[in-house]
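Re-run requested by the PI after the first attempt was lost when the workstation crashed. Everything re-entered from the original request form. Ligand of interest: S-adenosylmethionine.
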Amino acid sequence: MEYWDKRFSDGGKIWGDKPSKTAIYALKLFQEYYLHKILVPGAGYGRNTKIFTEANLEVVGIEFSETAINIAKSFNPKTQFFQGSVLDMPFDEEKYDGIYCSNVLHLFLKGDRISFLKKCYKQLRTKGFVFFVVFSDKERSFGKGKRIEENTYESKPWRPTHYFTEIDLKEHFKECLVIETGLMEDKENHGELGPHTHILRYIFAQIK
Ligand SMILES: C[S@@+](CC[C@H](N)C(=O)[O-])C[C@H]1O[C@@H](n2cnc3c(N)ncnc32)[C@H](O)[C@@H]1O
């Protein structure tokens, strides 16, 4: 938590004002499937929730950085936030049509990834949908740093990153009917890294 809070205190809107390509694509799918109520675990300062609320979706974010939530309050006041860890969900009794989660699942070790996903499924209505975005095994940083678990490296001290192959991603979501998976390039420009491109993997699936 301290790591992320410091990043937002130092960098503000680290990834800028604009939504990632994955959120633009997820919105298209949410609209195609008539999804209205969306939960966003690890929502950061709301750069990806804003595009959803602007499209009149009802959006609830879970985020443990108070600084990020404070930024979101002025940047995207229409997203309602709960402050806390996604590993402690649920924070409400609501059932959601869909979940959008970007660049969070890969931050956990295997046990926590599985328990996080179980908690997500419990927040979905019957046959609800998930759209998850994660680091892929095609990332430039894959294999760098100390290896902690299979395909998981300590990219920074105390910060594991799991890199997903397609098979691994589908295995994580085996309780769902997979509608679509793919790779998506996402350009960023921040911190010491400067301009760089992530090669992200996404999955769009429906709970069975
Ligand atoms: C890489 S950032 C992605 C932020 C946002 N999803 C986006 O794509 O702009 C990871 C976010 O997840 C939050 N986060 C990480 N672990 C968390 C946890 N256990 N519970 C709640 N939020 C968490 C961090 O504070 C940070 O905002």
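Saved to the shared folder this time. Residues 110-122 form the longest helix (13 residues).
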